[in-house]
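Lab meeting, action items carried over

1. Structure of the two-component assembly. Owner: GW. Status: complete.
Input record:
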Amino acid sequence: MKRRAFAVALGLTVAVVGMTACGSGGSSAGGDSGTIHVLVYGDASNKVEKQLVETFNKTSKVKAVLDTIPGADYQPKLNTIINTPQAPDVFFNWGGGSIQPYVKSDLLLPLDDMIAADPGLKSNFLPSVFNTAVIDGKSYGIPMRGTQPVLLFNNKKVLADAGLSVPKTWDDLLNAVRVLKAKGVTPFALGGGDQWPTLMWYEYVFDRVAGPELFQKALSGDKSAWESEDAKKALGMLKQLVDAGAFGSNFDSVKFTDGGSPALLAKGKAAFELMGSWEYATQQDASPDFAKGDLGYSSFPSIAGGKGDPANVVGNTNNFYSVLKKSKHPEAAAAFLKLMYSDEFVKAQLAIGNLPTTTGTEQFLSTAANPDYSKYQYDLVKAAPSFQLSWDQAYPPAANTPIHVAVQQFLNGKLDVNGFIKAMQALPAS
Amino acid sequence: MSASSFVSRSGRRPRAGSRTGVGVTRPGLVWAVPATVFFLLFAIVPLVLVAVLSFTSWNGVDAPRFNGLANWTKLLHDPVMTQSIWLTLVLTAAGVVVQTPVSILLGVWAAGHQRNRAVLSAIFFVPLLLSATAVSVVWRAILDPNFGVPSQLEWLFGDGNLMGSQSGGVAVLTFVGMWQWTPMHALLYQGGARAIPRVLYQAASIDGAGKVRQFFHITLPQLRNTAITSVILMVVGGLTTFDTVLILTQGGPGTDTTNSAYYMYQQAFKSFDFGAGSAIALVLVVAATLISLAVVRLSGYDKMRSTAEGL
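Predicted assembly:
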């Protein structure tokens, strides 16, 4: 009796597994003919995506359908459907590690043929941004939103009260920590509870000390990069910063996502915050008066003796559209992607505060929601010899949690230098 | 179709008819089919699938590949997994220890007929109506180190780094769990206390027992079965605590509050390693089943001993 029950269960399992296997091999994307499905991350930027889909549908025979998945659920849901008949034709991603597993599974269409047919699909974008979605020498993504470099934001009033100016060098920064501590102000607001804000500090210090090559080397599988002298030096400097009380003592209980760390900056309880360019929009939303008057911004200071160019930036280079190999209408997808360097696209993105990364963006900067801020970022990104994609997005998703855990544990003292090096060396290889 | 075909298999004579009267026979197996099918479809089949997946490497995109015991050996040597089991047990035990006395006191109090009782009970039960997510978000704001309660009570909270240490994180999770779940258990105890026969109290007060004595010698023993139900619910709930961890601490700092349920989610839905996630899930299922069985056995609940014997 028992054995028979087991046989039935096993039979069911095989049946179900068989069904899944058939499903994944079966019919192609965009079931009904004559449409392409465009899947994007659901948030305020969807306004522009809707507009562009409408523009596209005015002239195209193949109609585009925009599907959105609300923010936090995007990646798991995409992963669930990407190898099923429900897969979209074109989808939003972060380039780099976020699409690497799909490239490996041979699901994505290399865009090189499209680019050969229309070189504008490549030449119209800033190279440092475009390259984020180049994997093994092939292009897989077209930039489709705004760039988000990480900047050092400050509270002008707090700096003025303390007699400080914006730090240009690491020594300025350490000096600022001393002065601000003495005044009872937390030098740097840090949303350590979210973990990724902590990672931004590593990205910049490693880039300034060792140059972008160290991380690229590690990412390409040479794990010795993590135990190099430069890596140890960068870790030492981060430790020095924590020990000097640069982040206060309760940063791991603070989050950016619930408004904690931006409030510290806006209320003058902290003088600086290292954050993606979206900090500006966050502050405009939460503390409009502060954003208008006292919110300052600068690039990350230089580090004397470091190998990295002080003009280098880190952050999210942009978001990308990638095309699935099994899409029935690749030519329609190509026509849709061409809109990503149209004037309409650039103007619409600028109007909602995003900063597109086409080479033609410059002439429209005056129409941006905050012209000065947009111009500052654009010049910064354009002049940057290297724009390093955030580590957690450069690596495939499997490395995401281990990276976050390691950076948090090193900063709060749970891991020492060797522990951190070991943790990074244990990351799943790309 | 006549009802009798459900009641007994065709051709066989109703057996129980002779003892309990016509028509009070044991229902036929057919009645159990709907529930059994659903149980198979939504509990057993997924469970078996998870068991199979735990021997594969699957990123959710390609077809699963069998990799033998790789997930299991990895799990065995994974310090985060070991820690997560300890954390799960600590969180569960702390939940039971903290919630039970408060629930009993509140429930027994709410079973009485005092002034304002109905109004106050209604207020106490409000957390029961809120989703775990809402509860966690609210407490996160209240416990913010710079703008919440800790910034006003420095003598108690120090620098307010509650979610920045393991002990702090566990304390917060336990406290928020208590705040959220105590009302439900209080409700159970209220029902239990209401069902205690009044004659017991009347007899006790004639014998000269005071309120306290009545509580310890009548109320508590009479609530035994309620307590076991409540504890099992707490244990199962504690073992699978997830939403509060996700929102309050995200398993951090580092992995300091990563309990097994959260670790499972992290492996499966953040790292897209469904094989490893399934292995953790299976450990949780087995552990939860064993612990529930142990509670039932040790408490004598399975003997269904009545608390009303001799009444």
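2. GW to write a short summary for the group page. Key points so far: Chain A has two domains: 30-147+318-387, 148-315+395-425. The CA atoms of residues 47 and 352 of chain A lie 9 Å apart.
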